[in-house]
Amino acid sequence: MKNLFVLFTILFFISCGKQKVVELPEISHADITEIQDVSAAYLFYDETQPDSVLLNRKNLISTTNWLINVDKQLTLKQVIPHIKFLQEKKTNAGHKNENAKNYFTCHDTSRNNLGFIEFTDVNYTKQLSFVKQTSISSLRNLKNQVRINFNSSNIARIININSDSISKKIVKTELIENLKELDSSINIIHLDFNSNLLFQDYISFKSIISEASLSKAKISNKEYIYN
């Protein structure tokens, strides 16, 4: 496959003579700005569909890097089942390339060009609720474990099992500062996302987390999606 040279912030896809649009999520800075040997899938926001999502994956090649273009208006509840399906499809493909990765495509506003966030090893796990899976009594038995609950577009809650103050509410602009504080110890940080968050919100939080450049603490590859 040839290099990716796409200069549009909105991707257009034409199928059966009809034009469809994916409004890409925006991030302020992308660490990954160019990927070679790619094929793409599209998740459109389509109100004519039962779950308002239309997936087109016709052009995916299992041995390439996959670019998943998700409309920012969709919720995680709508998106994640399709993402898990694509992950399983690649894992179970007959022809594999162990070096091929999976990326979400974004609009990098600092460059007015495309940027990418890798999610190859993310394990999306469904939970009934955040409260049920994070009872305080059970959390206190774990060491060096931190949970961050993303429940709205601008507010997160950090549950630090190693702290006397077990729960701390923060706004998005304070997230990097708090992550750097957690990086002072060898913490494992688990991410929990409300399934009603927009994909734009999810990508915004993921981008901020990547900017923290943690050295001691580790972000768990298992992400919990709860109702």
Task: Describe the structure in your own words.
The chain has about 230 residues and is an alpha/beta fold. The chain is about 20% helix and about 35% strand. It is built from five helices and 14 strands. It has helices at about 75-90, 130-135, 135-140, 175-180, 200-210; strands at about 10-15, 20-25, 25, 40-45, 55, 65-70, 100-110, 115-120, 125, 145-150, 155-160, 165-170, 190-195, 220-225. The strands form three sheets. Strands 3, 4, 5, 6, 7 and 8 form a six-stranded mixed beta sheet that branches. Strand 1 (about 10-15) and strand 2 (about 20-25) form a beta hairpin. It is globular.
Distance between the termini: 39 Å
Main beta sheet: strand number and arrangement?
A: 6 strands, mixed
Number of strands: 14
Shape: globular
How much of the sequence lies in strands comes to 35-45%
H and E string? EEEEEEHEEEHHEEEHEHE
Poorly predicted tracts of residues: 1-16
Q: How many whole angstroms does the radius of gyration measure?
A: 18 Å
